[in-house]
């Protein structure tokens, strides 16, 4: 597990050459990479969402594609299409940008629901079906989507089924005064993103993902995780709690976070760290709770305080 931690450390150091003061955010992104899950980055414009996604892609020896979502983007613009090649006299399939190992989907909430739904199969099944033919996507496969919550005109909010496909939902947030000053210095003469080179191969990423599944979870810690997720379904301020898919996501991310720390076993603290970013976007709050402007993160914090932590 120490070898895995060292390899991840190389990616962390590479991304940190571009991002200033985002160590915790980078670690969450690396957890998603180890779980081969997808990430939704949501925050106001200019907080580094796209830069973070591009820095991770540049640090991995994987194929990369970027999709700028607008209302006129069609599903075939993502998945590809079959066209008639007059030279050879038959139909051929032209792959779309989804046939890449790392896909950055910028401003996903600007795409129409029909186009957003084209991502569902790709994100969940890692396949694309066009004209009745199902084609597998390359592995590892990671979708990094960004959206701006403050823009309402010309946007189409992601439905719950689409949100549930994202392993994590992250909010970069504004930098501190010192961090923002460091950003100005770092980008003063050139963009460090242009100098990034891959520090991991796609084969190494797949090997790391397999090793993460070997991280041990004791029955007591597993029961603690399940009780935590089930508590979201009975909380009076939550209309719809996390599904079993949320339980599985929390389980896998806790394993990855433990591996990130060089451990071969999961601690309850690993679950506590990952719960807000794994479960927060999977909860549907009651109307009264939304009127009081309470956030799902606050409710998850309450649940974490209520569920007894297993002790040896």
From TrEMBL:
InterPro entries the record matches: AAA+_ATPase, ATPase_AAA-3, CbbQ/NirQ/NorQ/GpvN, ChlI/MoxR_AAA_lid, P-loop_NTPase
Protein family: Belongs to the MoxR family.
A single GO molecular function term of this UniProt record: ATP hydrolysis activity
SMART domains to which the protein is assigned, alphabetical: AAA
Matching Pfam families: AAA_3, AAA_lid_2
Keyword terms, alphabetized: ATP-binding, Nucleotide-binding
Protein name, entry field: AAA family ATPase
